[in-house]
Design a protein that fits this description.
Layout lengths: L4 E5 L6 H17 L4 E5 L5 H8 L5 E4 L16 H7 L3 E4 L2 H5 L5 H13 L3 E6 L3 H5 L3 H13 L4 H6 L1 E4 L13 H18 L2 H6 L2 E3 L5 H8 L6 E4 L6 H16 L1
Parallel strand pairs: 1-2, 1-8, 2-3, 3-4, 4-5, 5-6, 6-7, 7-8
Length: 256
């Protein structure tokens, strides 16, 4: 049984006080949610404050990015051991903004995935197509490339621990959301990719999140889909009340 996982990606937002307050709200939601793992990924400079606010609660904390080297001359980067030392459990890797704004390649992201395991972190591997790719009928080809390259060289035990987040780029921060059926179709395709790469048992164990303009009022219908195991929430995670509602709706959807 896959445990649903709802994680907030705060991106480059909040200040230290706001981050701590958001973390406290998310921690309360994590304590109240039955059978749902809850996490937040704050800006790197606020990770320590968020970990402190989450201490003693079920709330997991992650980094929004990490370099594949443990240290070195990489100005402005954050290393996996740094995130681990601060108390992070997860690291978001391959987010569309890293791919398309900062030019990260599939090979670069793959190195980060391997590094995450080396440094004791669990990857949240983001995959997803741009609008023109969907319109050209290339959704499956793009997602297949992202999945296979992101998992390349991982053992089955490692791959089983990866959280895959399907985020159609055209739905991130636009107010547009893939319909529950559109999302389910791609999630089922990803699970098929996992079965081809490994086996059916592993494919059935990997958690696949949906991300892209997730809100409290579309959470239930998304989370009712058979292959949607959680949500990677952007803007809606910056308001404690809205994020708590998303967590609660996720729990309700999986109980029905």
């Amino acid at each position: 049984m896959r445990k649903p996982f709802v994680c907030g990606n705060w991106k480059m937002n909040t200040d230290r006080r706001g981050a701590a307050a958001l973390a406290q709200g998310a921690a309360r939601a994590a304590e109240q949610a039955r059978g749902v793992e809850v996490g937040v990924c704050p800006p790197a400079c606020y990770v320590e404050a968020v970990v402190a606010a989450a201490r003693g609660t079920p709330l997991a904390v992650g980094g929004q990015n990490m370099h594949f080297e443990a240290s070195g001359a990489f100005t402005g980067e954050v290393a996996g051991p740094m995130l681990k030392e601060l108390g992070c459990r997860y690291a978001i890797l391959g987010h569309s903004e890293r791919r398309h704004v900062f030019g990260e390649t599939d090979e670069f992201i793959s190195r980060k995935v391997h590094a995450a395991f080396k440094f004791g972190l669990l990857p949240i591997l983001c995959v997803g197509e741009k609008l023109q790719e969907r319109q050209a009928g290339r959704t499956e080809a793009v997602v297949h490339r992202h999945v296979t390259s992101g998992l390349a060289g991982l053992t089955g035990d490692q791959a089983r621990q990866v959280v895959i987040a399907y985020e159609p780029v055209w739905a991130i921060g636009t107010g547009l959301t893939a319909t529950p059926q559109q999302a389910q179709d791609v999630h089922a395709f990803i699970r098929g990719c996992l079965e081809s790469l490994y086996d059916a048992a592993l494919a059935g164990d990997v958690r696949i999140q949906y991300g892209g303009s997730v809100k409290p009022d579309n959470t239930f219908d998304l989370m009712r889909q058979a292959d949607i195991d959680g949500l990677l929430v952007g803007g809606a995670s910056l308001k404690a009340e809205g994020f708590s509602a998303i967590v609660a709706e996720s729990a309700r959807a999986k109980e029905v």
